[in-house]
Structure formats: structure tokens, C-alpha cells
């Protein structure tokens, strides 16, 4: 649910940019900023769902929380409303470069693909399709953008999840427990992870995380392109 809300919010946030100015004409800097702002808005609005998803996925067997409702009630009763936003600060620190890189690199890859289409069409003496990218080309640009963003920002995602599962009493076979308030802040978490697990500890789960994030980014951008074209045809 969180991934759907996050992707939808990113798409809708970026759609506002395309009405003010053709988004392909935006500089890489503005693409980065608009993506970062859209990512922040999506994260703050849907963060409790991400927290619950991470806790339910990390608890293993026997289950500490059988349902999302039981996890929600326990967090509210033990940690208060603020407990639903545990780890929000490192998440925002992660999402600003992640969403920014995703949108910025997507626009860059898209420009490169458009230039390649122009060169190819000039070599074949064909005209009229210079700026039109196929669905497959849009998908590949989104796939590459999602992969780049995830590879750069994954260590921050690891730190975020450590904060989210603090105090979760899961079985040791599912990994070491993270005690409540085990880390003072994000920099403390980064240094402790490196000291205890080495630099490789910051990249735990990078393969499945990338396998999930890359196609999700591709689908998001294809939907973004078609949604922006459809809305622009209606409103103009």
C-alpha cells in the first residue's frame, strides 16, 4: 500500500511541473528539486503505512502482530502517536536524494534517448518522430533511473529500517534484534553499523531491493508520461 501511495504522490506532484513548463525543458537541477519535494510530500503523508509494512515484514514467526491493526494499536499504546513516525528523519534524508536522483536521472536519460532518436532519424532521412519515445524506451529510462537512485541511496534505507524495527521482539533466527533507542541519531547508526558489520552492512539486501525498486520506478514514469499527456490534452 505504501509503495502505491508513494508512487501515486510522486506522479501527481510532478504533474504540476509539466503544466507550468514542458517538463522535458526543465533543467536537471529543477527536475531534482521537484522530485525531492514530491518525494518528501509522499513520505510524510504515507509514512505510517511504511512503518507498519516494515514491522509486519520483519517480525518473522511466531508473529508478534497478527494483523496491521494489532501493530497499529500496540505502537500507539506503547510509543504514542510519535511512534508511527519513528525513523522519519533518516527517511526524509534518504528520500530527498533518492526521489531527486530518480527524477533528475530520468529526465537526463530521456534527453539522451531523444537525441539518439534524432540521430537515428537523420541517418535514415525520416522525420516527425524525433521527440516521441516509445513505451519501451520510457520503461528503460525509468528502469535505469530507479536503479541508479537505489544503488546510491540504499545505505540510508538500511538505517531507516533499523530505526523502524527498534524494540521488535522477533525470533533471533530472523536476525539480531534492534533494541529500543539503540541508536542516538542517524550518524550514530551509520557509524555503529560500519563498526559492527563493516561497509557491507550498509548494503545488506541491495539485490532484492534493487530488483523491486527498478521496475517500480519504470512503471511509475511510464504512468507519469501517459497521465501527463492525457491531462494536458484535457486541460489545453
TrEMBL record:
It is a multi-pass membrane protein. One of its GO terms (biological process) is transmembrane transport. The keyword Repeat applies. Its main location: membrane. InterPro entries: MCP (IPR002067), MCP_dom_sf (IPR023395), MCP_transmembrane (IPR018108). Keywords: Membrane, Repeat, Transmembrane, Transport. Solcar repeats lie at residues 26-112, 133-230. The keyword Repeat applies. It holds the Pfam family Mito_carr. It is found in: Membrane. One of its GO terms (cellular component) is membrane. Belongs to the mitochondrial carrier (TC 2.A.29) family. This is Mitochondrial thiamine pyrophosphate carrier.
Amino acid at each position: 500500500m505504501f509503495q502505491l501511495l508513494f508512487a501515486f504522490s510522486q506522479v501527481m506532484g510532478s504533474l504540476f511541473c509539466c503544466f507550468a513548463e514542458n517538463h522535458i525543458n526543465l533543467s536537471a537541477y529543477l527536475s531534482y528539486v521537484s522530485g525531492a519535494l514530491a518525494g518528501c510530500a509522499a513520505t510524510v503523508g504515507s509514512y505510517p503505512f511504511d512503518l507498519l509494512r516494515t514491522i509486519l515484514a520483519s517480525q518473522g514467526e511466531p508473529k508478534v502482530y497478527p494483523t496491521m491493526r494489532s501493530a497499529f494499536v500496540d505502537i500507539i499504546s506503547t510509543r504514542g502517536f510519535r511512534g508511527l513516525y519513528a525513523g522519519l528523519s533518516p527517511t526524509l534524508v534518504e528520500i530527498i536524494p533518492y526521489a531527486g536522483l530518480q527524477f533528475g536521472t530520468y529526465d537526463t536519460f530521456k534527453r539522451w534517448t531523444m537525441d539518439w532518436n534524432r540521430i537515428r532519424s537523420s541517418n535514415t532521412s525520416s522525420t516527425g518522430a524525433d521527440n516521441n519515445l516509445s513505451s519501451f524506451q520510457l520503461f528503460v529510462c525509468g528502469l535505469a533511473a530507479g536503479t541508479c537512485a537505489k544503488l546510491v541511496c540504499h545505505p540510508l534505507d538500511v538505517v531507516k529500517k533499523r530505526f523502524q524495527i527498534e524494540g521488535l521482539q522477533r525470533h533471533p533466527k530472523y536476525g539480531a534484534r534492534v533494541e529500543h533507542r539503540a541508536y542516538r541519531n542517524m550518524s550514530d547508526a551509520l557509524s555503529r553499523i560500519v563498526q559492527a558489520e563493516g561497509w557491507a552492512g550498509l548494503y545488506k539486501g541491495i539485490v532484492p531491493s534493487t530488483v523491486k525498486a527498478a521496475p517500480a520506478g519504470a512503471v511509475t514514469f511510464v504512468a507519469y508520461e501517459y497521465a501527463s499527456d492525457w491531462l494536458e490534452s484535457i486541460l489545453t
